[in-house]
Amino acid sequence: MSKALSIERLHNRRSPLLPFAAWLAAGLIQATAAAASGDPSVSTLGTVTPPQHQLGPCIENSDGKPRVLVKVEKLQSTEGNLRVQIYGDNPDDFLEKGKKLVRIDVPVDHKTMRVCVPLPGLGNYAMLVMHDRNANGKADFMTEGFGFSNNPKLLLAPPDLEETLFAARAGVVELTVSLFYLIDVEQKEHRKRRRR
């Protein structure tokens, strides 16, 4: 299913959030399915699963290689995994299936997380961060959070690549990404408990 087809179908359902949700689902679910199937084109650097405490390369930075230390804020829970994906500066590759350069999956253990991400080299990159709350490897866009480098305002469509680009230099770049959730699940659960 193409992203354009998904968005077109959802436009007909009269919800202003559905086109954005379709875009997110189409890109992330296809990429996740390709990764699960063993598609080697999904990531040139592969998937790394370091615990949050393995921030040594970003903190020590003894080799001077380019890395980004991302602080992820506004996680709604400590369930599931946090996924960080890095894309290059080609607009045709941004958020496209099989075009991410790096993917990191980290178990969530705090409502604010720090993740050290290696970069392929110097240059300009874009970052997508997703809270896979139920750890199923899929983008359940209605209940899971997402955000981008530079924290662009998220409306009914994905941000433009230019809004998310950051420059990598020798050493460590520090970024903060605030997650956005379409539905506040904690608030929803709180209301359910109050009704009982």
Low-confidence stretches: 1-53
Separation of the first and last Cα atoms: 41 Å
Report mean pLDDT, rounded to a whole number: 76
Counted up, domains total 1
Strand content: 25-35%
N-to-C series of helices and strands: HHEHEEEEEEHEEH
User: Which overall shape is indicated by the principal axes computed on the Cα atoms?
Assistant: globular
Gyration radius over CA: 17 Å
- Count of helices? 5
Main sheet attributes: strand count, strand direction, barrel closure: 6 strands, mixed
Structural class: alpha+beta
Structure summary, number of beta strands: 9
Helix content: 10-25%
Overall description:
By secondary structure, the chain is of the alpha+beta class. The chain has one domain (3-188). The protein contains five helices and nine strands. The chain has helices at 3-11, 18-36, 56-60, 161-164, 185-195, and strands at residues 47-48, 67-73, 81-87, 102-107, 113-118, 123-132, 146-148, 166-168, 172-178. The strands form two sheets. Strands 1, 3, 4, 6, 7 and 8 form a six-stranded mixed beta sheet that branches. The radius of gyration is 17 Å and the shape is globular. The chain starts with a helix and ends with a helix.
Entry summary:
By secondary structure, the protein is α+β, with helices and mostly antiparallel strands. It has five helices and nine strands. The chain has helices at 3-11, 18-36, 56-60, 161-164, 185-195; strands spanning 47-48, 67-73, 81-87, 102-107, 113-118, 123-132, 146-148, 166-168, 172-178.
